[in-house]
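Supplementary Note 3. Input sequence used for the single-chain structure prediction.
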Amino acid sequence: MLLAAGLFVASTQTQAQTKIGYVSLGDVIQAMPEAKKADTALVQFRDALYQNAEEKRSTLEADIATFNRDSAKYTTAVKDVKRKQLQQQLQDLQGEDQRIQQELQKKQEELSTPIQKKAIDAVQAVAKEAGYTYVLPKEAVIVGPPADDILPLVKKKLGLK
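The predicted structure, written as C-alpha coordinates, is reproduced below.
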Protein backbone atom coordinates (compact mmCIF):
# COMPACT_ATOMS: atom_id res chain seq x y z
CA MET A 1 0.00 0.00 0.00
CA LEU A 2 2.82 2.38 0.90
CA LEU A 3 4.56 1.51 -2.37
CA ALA A 4 1.40 2.35 -4.36
CA ALA A 5 1.09 5.72 -2.60
CA GLY A 6 4.76 6.43 -3.33
CA LEU A 7 4.29 5.60 -7.03
CA PHE A 8 1.19 7.82 -7.18
CA VAL A 9 3.10 10.76 -5.70
CA ALA A 10 6.03 10.16 -8.08
CA SER A 11 3.77 10.01 -11.14
CA THR A 12 1.93 13.16 -10.02
CA GLN A 13 5.24 15.00 -9.70
CA THR A 14 6.33 13.78 -13.14
CA GLN A 15 3.08 14.99 -14.67
CA ALA A 16 3.42 18.35 -12.98
CA GLN A 17 6.92 18.77 -14.42
CA THR A 18 5.83 18.03 -17.99
CA LYS A 19 4.46 21.14 -19.60
CA ILE A 20 3.32 20.86 -23.21
CA GLY A 21 2.65 23.80 -25.47
CA TYR A 22 1.86 24.19 -29.13
CA VAL A 23 2.41 26.77 -31.84
CA SER A 24 1.88 27.21 -35.55
CA LEU A 25 5.26 28.04 -37.08
CA GLY A 26 3.40 29.18 -40.19
CA ASP A 27 1.53 31.77 -38.13
CA VAL A 28 4.78 32.93 -36.50
CA ILE A 29 6.55 33.27 -39.84
CA GLN A 30 3.57 34.97 -41.47
CA ALA A 31 3.60 37.61 -38.73
CA MET A 32 7.29 38.39 -39.27
CA PRO A 33 8.10 41.43 -41.43
CA GLU A 34 11.05 39.51 -42.86
CA ALA A 35 8.61 37.03 -44.40
CA LYS A 36 6.71 39.81 -46.16
CA LYS A 37 9.99 41.22 -47.51
CA ALA A 38 11.05 37.75 -48.65
CA ASP A 39 7.72 37.24 -50.45
CA THR A 40 8.13 40.57 -52.22
CA ALA A 41 11.72 39.75 -53.18
CA LEU A 42 10.64 36.34 -54.50
CA VAL A 43 7.88 37.88 -56.64
CA GLN A 44 10.34 40.40 -58.07
CA PHE A 45 12.87 37.65 -58.78
CA ARG A 46 10.19 35.52 -60.48
CA ASP A 47 9.09 38.47 -62.62
CA ALA A 48 12.70 39.12 -63.66
CA LEU A 49 13.16 35.47 -64.63
CA TYR A 50 9.98 35.47 -66.70
CA GLN A 51 10.92 38.76 -68.35
CA ASN A 52 14.32 37.32 -69.25
CA ALA A 53 12.66 34.22 -70.74
CA GLU A 54 10.28 36.41 -72.75
CA GLU A 55 13.23 38.39 -74.10
CA LYS A 56 14.87 35.12 -75.17
CA ARG A 57 11.64 34.08 -76.95
CA SER A 58 11.44 37.43 -78.72
CA THR A 59 15.09 37.21 -79.76
CA LEU A 60 14.57 33.71 -81.12
CA GLU A 61 11.49 34.78 -83.07
CA ALA A 62 13.36 37.75 -84.52
CA ASP A 63 16.35 35.56 -85.43
CA ILE A 64 14.06 33.04 -87.14
CA ALA A 65 12.35 35.83 -89.08
CA THR A 66 15.74 37.23 -90.12
CA PHE A 67 16.92 33.79 -91.18
CA ASN A 68 13.76 33.16 -93.24
CA ARG A 69 13.98 36.59 -94.83
CA ASP A 70 17.70 36.49 -95.66
CA SER A 71 18.36 32.78 -96.17
CA ALA A 72 18.35 33.12 -99.96
CA LYS A 73 21.47 35.31 -99.64
CA TYR A 74 23.37 32.79 -97.51
CA THR A 75 25.68 30.09 -98.74
CA THR A 76 24.91 26.52 -97.73
CA ALA A 77 27.63 26.60 -95.07
CA VAL A 78 26.28 29.83 -93.54
CA LYS A 79 22.73 28.40 -93.58
CA ASP A 80 23.95 25.30 -91.71
CA VAL A 81 25.71 27.39 -89.08
CA LYS A 82 22.68 29.68 -88.64
CA ARG A 83 20.30 26.68 -88.40
CA LYS A 84 22.46 25.12 -85.68
CA GLN A 85 22.49 28.42 -83.80
CA LEU A 86 18.69 28.68 -84.04
CA GLN A 87 18.28 25.06 -82.94
CA GLN A 88 20.52 25.72 -79.94
CA GLN A 89 18.51 28.83 -79.02
CA LEU A 90 15.29 26.82 -79.31
CA GLN A 91 16.70 24.02 -77.18
CA ASP A 92 17.82 26.52 -74.52
CA LEU A 93 14.39 28.12 -74.52
CA GLN A 94 12.62 24.77 -74.14
CA GLY A 95 14.50 24.11 -70.88
CA GLU A 96 13.82 27.62 -69.61
CA ASP A 97 10.61 26.81 -67.69
CA GLN A 98 12.32 24.05 -65.74
CA ARG A 99 15.32 26.29 -65.07
CA ILE A 100 13.02 29.06 -63.83
CA GLN A 101 11.29 26.67 -61.42
CA GLN A 102 14.65 25.47 -60.11
CA GLU A 103 15.89 29.04 -59.66
CA LEU A 104 12.69 30.02 -57.86
CA GLN A 105 12.92 27.05 -55.52
CA LYS A 106 16.57 27.82 -54.77
CA LYS A 107 15.78 31.50 -54.11
CA GLN A 108 12.82 30.61 -51.90
CA GLU A 109 14.99 28.32 -49.78
CA GLU A 110 17.69 30.99 -49.60
CA LEU A 111 15.19 33.58 -48.39
CA SER A 112 13.14 31.38 -46.06
CA THR A 113 15.89 29.48 -44.25
CA PRO A 114 17.04 32.37 -42.01
CA ILE A 115 13.42 33.34 -41.31
CA GLN A 116 12.53 29.79 -40.29
CA LYS A 117 15.63 29.60 -38.10
CA LYS A 118 14.71 32.85 -36.36
CA ALA A 119 11.16 31.58 -35.72
CA ILE A 120 12.38 28.24 -34.38
CA ASP A 121 14.96 29.94 -32.18
CA ALA A 122 12.23 32.18 -30.75
CA VAL A 123 9.98 29.18 -30.06
CA GLN A 124 12.84 27.39 -28.31
CA ALA A 125 13.66 30.46 -26.22
CA VAL A 126 10.02 30.91 -25.18
CA ALA A 127 9.72 27.22 -24.33
CA LYS A 128 12.79 27.42 -22.13
CA GLU A 129 11.73 30.68 -20.44
CA ALA A 130 8.15 29.53 -19.84
CA GLY A 131 9.12 26.04 -18.69
CA TYR A 132 7.63 24.04 -21.57
CA THR A 133 9.07 20.54 -21.85
CA TYR A 134 7.52 19.98 -25.28
CA VAL A 135 6.21 22.31 -27.97
CA LEU A 136 4.20 20.60 -30.69
CA PRO A 137 3.06 21.92 -34.06
CA LYS A 138 -0.43 23.36 -33.62
CA GLU A 139 -1.56 21.41 -36.67
CA ALA A 140 -0.81 18.16 -34.79
CA VAL A 141 -2.89 19.13 -31.74
CA ILE A 142 -6.50 18.04 -32.00
CA VAL A 143 -7.49 19.18 -28.53
CA GLY A 144 -5.53 21.52 -26.33
CA PRO A 145 -6.16 24.32 -23.90
CA PRO A 146 -5.85 27.77 -25.48
CA ALA A 147 -3.48 28.82 -22.71
CA ASP A 148 -0.89 26.36 -24.04
CA ASP A 149 -0.82 28.04 -27.48
CA ILE A 150 2.49 29.90 -27.18
CA LEU A 151 2.00 32.01 -30.33
CA PRO A 152 1.40 35.22 -28.32
CA LEU A 153 4.56 34.58 -26.29
CA VAL A 154 6.62 33.93 -29.42
CA LYS A 155 5.27 37.06 -31.11
CA LYS A 156 6.16 39.07 -28.01
CA LYS A 157 9.66 37.55 -27.99
CA LEU A 158 10.10 38.63 -31.63
CA GLY A 159 8.71 42.10 -30.92
CA LEU A 160 5.62 41.53 -33.09
CA LYS A 161 2.04 42.60 -32.48
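DSSP finds six helices and two strands in the chain. The chain has one domain: 16-158.
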